[in-house]
Specification:
The chain has 233 residues and is mainly α. 75% of the residues lie in helices and 6% in strands.
């Protein structure tokens, strides 16, 4: 395993490069579509409130939070949290993000199964993600001197696998939220065809960040599994 660190660093490097490229493309897309101003003059916050209202959701608040790309839906306090640019601006990019986050609120209201599964995994994954690498590495070191090391490494691998599972469960949640957002934007006629195309392209690249993260987590999991089981021989 110790001699396999180069392989690990190679995987991490490839994942980091892919993540950087997708993130860079995403930022350029949002910058591009931030220049496509909505003909209806609505802000991201107004778009969000209308989508919630049109879906019969009256117990979710739309609030502004600091930062960029900090937008999220919080199911615990039922708030759609929009970054300041998205909350205030009146363009295709802001509309896309606002509607996407409301898509999560719609999922919550309709008890969307994948969202429920992801929410169930959150507490366990938050702990597992902090411990997995330490447990794996500790187990690997112990494998050189005792059989107990394999058991410890295997426990670490299972902890890491929980994070990988979470990353893949996140994919249908994010894609479904975008599909709900785009379907509503089209049916409600709040945007023109050009604005809708910009929103769709923005959300497509946003979704790809989750795909890269999930594939990267899977690649790392498989690498550790090969090293642990290979080191047992």
């Amino acid at each position: 395993m110790m001699g396999g660190y180069m392989g690990y660093y190679l995987i991490i490097g490839v994942i980091a490069l892919a993540s950087w490229l997708v993130s860079r493309k995403l930022k350029s897309k949002f910058k591009e579509y931030s220049k496509v101003h909505l003909q209806n003059g609505m802000s991201g916050a107004e778009i969000a409130r209308k989508m919630l209202s049109d879906n019969g959701i009256n117990d979710v608040k739309v609030i502004s939070v600091q930062g960029q790309l900090t937008d999220h839906y919080n199911p615990k306090d039922k708030t759609v949290n929009l970054s300041e640019p998205v909350f205030n601006e009146r363009n295709a990019a802001a509309a896309a993000v606002a509607a996407h986050e409301c898509g999560h609120a719609v999922q919550h209201a309709k008890a969307y199964s994948w969202l429920k599964m992801r929410s169930t995994l959150v507490p366990a994954v938050s702990v597992a993600s902090k411990l997995s690498m330490f447990v794996i590495m500790g187990g690997v070191v112990l494998m050189a001197t005792t059989q107990m090391g394999f058991t410890v490494a295997l426990i670490g691998l299972c902890l890491f696998a929980m994070g990988t599972l979470f990353a893949f469960v996140t994919l249908p949640v994010e894609y479904d939220a975008s599909n709900r957002a785009l379907a509503w934007m089209k049916s409600s006629n709040v945007v023109t065809s050009k604005e809708l195309a910009g929103a769709e392209d923005s959300l497509k690249w946003a979704a790809r960040t989750y795909v890269v993260a999930a594939l990267g987590s899977l690649a790392t999991l498989l690498y550790f599994a090969l090293q642990i089981f290979g080191g047992r021989r």
